[in-house]
Every structure is written in structure tokens, then in C-alpha cells.
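REQUEST FORM: STRUCTURE PREDICTION
Request ID: SP-0412
Submitted by: Lab K.M.
Chain count: 1
Length (residues): 184
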Amino acid sequence: VGKDGLVTALDISRPSIEQLSTVAASDARLTALVADMSELRSVVDSQCQTPRYSFVNSTYSLYYAPDPQDVLQQMVSLLTPAGRVAVAVPVGPHGMVEIASKFSEIPNSVLESFEFGPNVLEPAFREFFDNVSVHFFRADMVIPSIEEFLKFYQSTTYFSADAVDDIRNYLDRDVSEEKINYCL
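STATUS: Completed
RESULT:
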């Protein structure tokens, strides 16, 4: 953002904002706030140094909003005339979800999150902007062991304790190390 730019970070997670504030405590260019993205516009208007931004970003969160299109509209309303918006959302296929689905039911909210980009986000962007680019990034991960895989799985929104032993056995029996590295 350069020496004169300002950054506003908003997250519903108090521990995340506290960690960011600790790491960047000496940087006056940062305003870090605990808030719900559904109240983005009012939070920015009441608590931020700047009412307009050249770039507004949402990473793996917009699809959690009760009304994502309203939040997107709030994001757009915060832009400078030449401002840009970027939103990152999950897309399939997703290797861990595919493995977990063999042994437990994946919540609809997880499955719907894979459809959010093409079915909700892209059409909304095309309403707001004349120039829209959609990029697909594949985030191949290397998980060094079955236990690390299970630890990662435990932190997901689709974790099922009842499926852990079956997943462990499946990975140990049917999935090579190369396949684990590739599919996540």
C-alpha cells in the first residue's frame, strides 16, 4: 500500500484480529476490527480512517454471509472510482471432501460453497462491473502423513469423529503417498 496507503482488516474472529494487531502493532496504516461482514459499510463509516478503497478483498468468507449479495454490494460501495474487488471462494474438486464423503455425510453448506462462485458470485460481479475476470487456482498441498491429514480434517467444518478410523484405514490401505499429496 506504500507509505501513505491504509489497510482495514475486518474479521468476525477476535483471536485472528488480535493476532494481526499484535504482529502489526507498530503500523499506523492498519485498522483491524472484529466485526461481522454483514455490517461492513456501517463499520467502515463509523470506525475507519478512509471511506473509500482502491481494493476490497474477501477470502473464503463471503459465502458464509446470510446475504452475500448485500455484502458484495457493500464492498462495491466502498470503492474509489477505479477500485477493484477480489473474492476467493472454494471450488471443486476437493480431495479431502471427496475422501471424507466416503465415510460421512458432508453438510450441504460445504457442498454449496463449491457452487457459490459460478452460481452466485460471478453473476453478481457481472451486474456490478463491466470488466470481470474469473481465475481458477489449484492449491496442491503436501500433507506429510496420515496423522497430519487427520489433524487437518479435524479442523474442517465437515469433520465427523465417527469417520476418523475409517478414513485412517482407507488412507493407509488404498491411497498411496503420491495420491495424498496430489488430491488435497
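NOTES: The chain has a mean pLDDT of 89.
Reviewed by: T.R.
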